[in-house]
Amino acid sequence: MAEYLASIFGTEKDKVNCSFYFKIGACRHGDRCSRLHNKPTFSQEVFTELQEKYGEIEEMNVCDNLGDHLVGNVYVKFRREEDAERAVAELNNRWFNGQAVHAELSPVTDFRESCCRQYEMGECTRGGFCNFMHLRPISRNLRRQLYGRRPRRRSPPRSHMGHHPRERHRRHFPDHRHGRF
């Protein structure tokens, strides 16, 4: 039975999921459609698009802060520097959620020091206006789906930092918190 359901998923025979939305990402019935519109999460959508267009992604961080300098920031670490450079060049001509995308290369290769330790422990008293990054978590299943079964890379110790610049760019999405999460 599961094999049959998998074979008809997203087709017109699928009585649960909307085949039109599955094929083209839109449906004339909108929210009134009797079938489900399976929308990818923001993280999944951005990760998939960037990896397909520009190259392998080692890490992606989505900020959940509200301060002007961090709101909507997405940090993507590509495996190859050339991929990051091409992504920055092309993304600066794009729009997202009605706002121009501002992408730039970043010299930071290890964001562990940029992340709010109190937030990670559920204790940050500064809330969304904290000057350290509050990373939007992604589920274990989504992490496995996006990154595969490869182990998470650990950054080199701080003493080795700065000797080998890594490729990273920052993609800025104003008001991403109102997007499809």
From TrEMBL:
It is found in: Nucleus. Keywords: DNA-binding, Metal-binding, mRNA processing, mRNA splicing, Nucleus, Repeat, RNA-binding, Spliceosome, Zinc, Zinc-finger. Residues 12-40, 110-137 form the C3H1-type domain. A zinc finger (C3H1-type) spans 12-40, 110-137. InterPro entries: Nucleotide-bd_a/b_plait_sf, RBD_domain_sf, RRM_dom, RRM_euk-type, U2AF_small, Znf_CCCH. One of its GO terms (biological process) is mRNA splicing, via spliceosome. The keyword Kinase does not apply. The keyword Nucleus applies. One of its GO terms (molecular function) is DNA binding. Pfam families: RRM_1, zf-CCCH. Residues 143-181 are annotated as: Disordered. Residues 44-108 form the RRM domain. GO terms for cellular component: spliceosomal complex; U2AF complex. PANTHER family: U2 SNRNP AUXILIARY FACTOR, SMALL SUBUNIT (PTHR12620). This is U2 small nuclear RNA auxiliary factor 1-like 4.
